[in-house]
Amino acid sequence: MLWFQGNSMQLAKHPFQLLLRNLSASKTALPVLTLFTKDPCPLCDEAKEVLEPYKNREVDITLPENSAWYDRYKFDIPVFHLNGQFLMMHRVDVSKLEKQLQKLEQQGAGG
User: Fold this and answer.
1) Does residue 14 lie in a domain region?
2) In the chain, how many H helices and how many E strands?
3) How confident is the model at residue 34 (pLDDT cuts 50, 70, 90)?
4) In the Cβ-directed half-sphere of 40, how many Cα atoms lie within 13 Å?
5) What range defines the domain where residue 51 resides?
6) For residues 101 and 62, what is the distance between their CA atoms, to the nearest angstrom?
7) Which of 23, 27, 30, 98 is the most buried (most CB within 10 A)?
8) Average pLDDT over residues 63-79
């Protein structure tokens, strides 16, 4: 999949990379994907690697100021919120993420 900006051309590794770029180029505010995590968490490490290009916010649930999140998610990390709403947990579901980003894009376009 190709994405063009000005005279440059870049290859998008995943379809939602193109979607995020389209969202960022539009007047729509970029969605915020929040990852709830703790250490150690091999699934969290895997999720962070997959989502590194899209990293917006990460919440370490073991910090004292995040104790409410720790109580809620201590056995379910990684957990992802998109724009403050629960999206998925345990593994990255790229299809689900892509569908939600498309919804946001359509809402931003008035559709």
Assistant:
1) no
2) 4, 6
3) confident
4) 1
5) 33-109
6) 29
7) 23
8) 95
